[in-house]
Amino acid sequence: MRTVALTGSTNADLAEVARAGGRAGEVLITEHQQAGRGRFDRAWQSPPGTSLSTSVLLRPRREALDWGWLSLLVGLSVTEGLRSLGAADRIQLKWPNDALIDGKKVCGILSELVVTDLGNAAICGWGINISFDESELPTPQATSLLLAGLPTDKDLVAAAVLARLDDIFIRWD
Known about the structure:
Blueprint: E1 2-4, H1 10-19, E2 27-30, E3 36-37, E4 43-44, E5 51-58, H2 70-83, E6 91-94, E7 98-101, E8 104-114, E9 121-129, H3 154-172
């Protein structure tokens, strides 16, 4: 696992790692992305230090046709990881790629296929709003762990989600 204070996009960075022969299981985490993206090339922006953006390089053994499940597996991992931190009854997965607290978006997910010389790879990324205050929310339909009264320790949040993803991905693959 590698952490950086700032990057353009954790997904783009790990895609380059994958093309250079990177191994499955590599993780990149940052507190600030300058060129983060969501589905349909929507911008994913947050004030520095208020979110946790994470990407994982995966090389599933399953047929590529099954890879559409990866965003769902990440969504399940995020929601289960956040539920383990408290307020389990308030956290939901909005299929296919958002985690919600009290019906408001706290996390977006983006999975991408990367063609490499070692075979196809998947980059699964997610961004969790950690410590946004009301004035920093990008829309009224968004929230943060801070506003929801959940733990904001980024190491704790990352560990909870990654532990669930490890278990869920291994069983799926």
